[in-house]
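Backbones bend. To wit:
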Amino acid sequence: MDFGRLITAMVTPFDRSGEINWDETARLIEHLIADQKSDSLVIAGTTGESPTLTESEKLELFAFAVKQAAGRCKIIAGTGSNNTAHSVELTKKAEACGVDGILLVAPYYNKPNQEGLYKHFEAIAAATSLPVMLYNVPGRTGVSLSTATTLRLAQLPNIVATKECASIDQVTAIAAGAPEGFIVYSGDDSAALPALSVGAYGIVSVASHIAGARMKEMIEAYLAGNVQEAAKLHQSLFPLFKGLFECPDPLPNPSAVKFALNERGYQVGDVRLPLVSPSESEASFIRSMLASL
C-alpha cells in the first residue's frame, strides 16, 4: 500500500451544537483532495479530535470518508488507543467500513514498556488484513516507541509505515534500519523537508489543510533534485508550520487549524471540550499569519 507523500490528518467538522457537520465534512474532503493535493486522509486521528469522538461517530466518519473519496485518495482510520482489546475491535469494524489502512497511536497514559508496546501493536496488526501505520508521538502519549521496537514491528507483514514525531535522529535511524517496503513519515510539519533529507518518505500534516498544494510542490521539488527551490518553499511555509502550534503561545491541536479553516470559509466549527478555541490575541495572530501566506 502506497499512502503517498502528503497525508492530511483531517479535522472533524462540527456544527453549532457540537455534532458532526456532514455537509461540511464532504466539502472539506473535496478541498483536501482537489485543492490541497492530499494523497491520503487520516480520519479520527488526534487532529480529528479522536479522544472526544464516540465509537459510533468514528465508524460513521470512516464509512462517510470512504464513500466521499471514492478511490481518489486513501482513507486511513485512526483506531489506536491505550486499550488493546478496544483497538482490536475498532480496527475490525473500520476494516468493514472499507478503509484503506489503519493508524495506531502509541498507548497513552498507562505508559507500557517496550515489550508492552510491541505486543500491543502486534495484537492489533494480527486482527486485520489492512496495512498499518504506527504513530509515535511522545509529547502527547508520555511514552516513546524506540527505534529498536519500531524496527522489530516493521518485520510484521502488514505494519508498513510509521509516523514519527520523536526526533530527526529517530527518523534517520529508522529509515536507515528499516526493511524494504517499510517507510517513515514525519509527523511534524516544520520537520518535513529535513526529514526527507534523512530518508523519510513524506509527511502526515496538519498545515496541509491550508497549504497542502505548496507542500506537495516542496516535496516534488526536493525529489526532483531542486533542493534550493524546496528550501525556499519550506522557508515561506515555516511561519505557518510553527504558528499553527505556537500562535504565539502553545495552542492544542486542532484549535488553531480549525480557526484558520473557518477564516478561509470552511465551516468546521469549534473544538470539543476540554479543548478550547483561540483567545482574541491568538485569533489575531492566526489572521495575520494567514494574511502573510
In short: Strands lie at 6-9, 40-43, 74-78, 101-105, 132-136, 159-164, 183-186, 202-205. The chain has a mean pLDDT of 97.
